[in-house]
Amino acid sequence: MIKESQRLPEKANQKYTVDAGDYFIRYVPAGATFRFVDLEGNQAADTLFYNAHNPAERYSATDTIREQGNVYLTAGSQLRSNENNIMLEIVADTCGRHDTLGGACATESNTVRYDLEKRCMHACRDSWMLAISENPKFGLDKRDISHNINFFMNVPVTEAGGLTFEDGISAPGKYVEMKAEMDLIVLISNCPQLNNPCNGYNPTPIDVLVWEA
Ligand SMILES: [Zn+2]
């Protein structure tokens, strides 16, 4: 569902640019609203959320899909934890649809999907691992890397019930905006994938804007 935001970028308290292939890890307090901007279009922002006070509580695709009765995420979606608490709500979305079924790229999946020689290519799971190892203050461990949201990524469900990776439906400047309903750790891998049409075979940067309550 397309829903524009009334928030002004110049009034944001924090602004970050996350380069293609880089990670982002930050605390975001309850009540804050934040926006991911797909600067050049067709990017995928592979994102995990945790309860800042108890990282064992984290974003759950299964709880979110079950409760909303829809596999796609968009404005109005409430993003739930593995304890079925509402962690965030998507409050604006100019892309229209985001994936939470496709998972994140890994050296192993690159090998299976594309070619044995792709094994050494940079992948989202490695970016998450680098983020948590370089930032021990968040208290995250390898076992906390779980299912994720692929913001801006187009993974339609076919009539037969399968999943396909398709050319993106995002475009330059499209954004998704969320309100934090609990104190959060936000962990993004701005996907470095070069083999997948979701990225337009060309990973590009995203912006993260935060408006504190
Ligand atoms: Zn990726």
TrEMBL record:
Coiled-coil intervals, chain numbering: none
One Pfam family this sequence matches: DUF1989
Domain DUF1989 per the UniProt entry, residue ranges: 17-185
InterPro entries the record matches: DUF1989 (IPR018959), UAAP2 (IPR017791)
Full protein name: Urea amidolyase associated protein UAAP2
Taxonomic path: Bacteria, Pseudomonadati, Pseudomonadota, Gammaproteobacteria, Lysobacterales
